[in-house]
Amino acid sequence: MRIANRHYLIVDVEATCADDGSLPREEMEIIEIGAVAQDATTFEVLSDFQTFVRPVRHPALTPFCVRLTSIAQDMVAGAPLFPEAIRAMTAWMSAFDDWLFCSWGNYDRGQFTQDCQYHGVPHPFGDRHFNLKAEFSRSLGLRRRFGMGAALRHLGLPLLGTHHRAIDDARNMARIVRRVCRGG
């Protein structure tokens, strides 16, 4: 799972969602960004970043979204709008050179692309993306693609924090990378 970059930026997002078809996929919006900067040699987490994001297309979170993410309406009501959140994340990212954008699967990458297009802001990561979900299975010689929680269980690691909270999921992904890369 080694790549020729000095840092991994492991990013996870949570987005508006519904379980009743009332919110089309193309109208989902990021409501939390969580990221960790991980040294690509030692696999130590160097820094983390978290922000909530105020949705504008569907500003009221659905009960399903609140249950799934544990993100309450008041947590996003006063949060920065997406362009401001991206500026803050980009400022945080600037402390790390030679980084590679990583996420568990392709969903987060696609959601960033969608939100950046909607808000007319540049995509903060460029075109390079590393799919940790696919690499996890490939590295361990497994056919099955694991969700992040299942990957933690497969490695015998407990879930730390709250699943479907972006910052906690990003931190847990960094733990998976560290374990797999160190041969555990």
Structure description:
The protein starts with 6 loop residues before the first strand and ends with a helix. It has helices spanning 63-69, 73-77, 82-93, 107-119, 132-139, 148-155, 166-181; strands at 7-15, 30-39, 45-52, 99-103, 130-131. It has one domain (7-181): Nucleotidyltransferase, domain 5 (2-Layer Sandwich), CATH 3.30.420.10. The mean pLDDT is 95. The chain is an alpha/beta fold. Strands 3-2-1-4-5 form a five-stranded mixed β-sheet.
Query: Stretches where pLDDT falls below 50 for ≥5 residues?
Result: none
CATH superfamily: Ribonuclease H-like superfamily/Ribonuclease H
How are strands sequenced across the largest beta sheet? 3-2-1-4-5
What is the number of beta strands?
5
Q: Would you list the SSEs in sequence order as H and E?
A: EEEHHHEHEHHH
CATH-defined fold name = Nucleotidyltransferase, domain 5
What is the CATH architecture assignment?
2-Layer Sandwich
| Largest sheet composition | 5 strands, mixed
- What is the count of DSSP helices, taking H or I runs of 4+ residues? 7
What's the end-to-end separation, in Å? 12 Å
Give me the secondary-structure category. alpha/beta
Outline type = globular
Radius of gyration: 16 Å
Notable characteristics:
alpha/beta, 5 strands, 184 residues, five-stranded mixed beta sheet, 38% helix, Nucleotidyltransferase, domain 5
Summarize the structure.
This protein has one domain (7-181): Ribonuclease H-like superfamily/Ribonuclease H (Nucleotidyltransferase, domain 5), CATH 3.30.420.10. 38% of the residues lie in helices and 18% in strands.
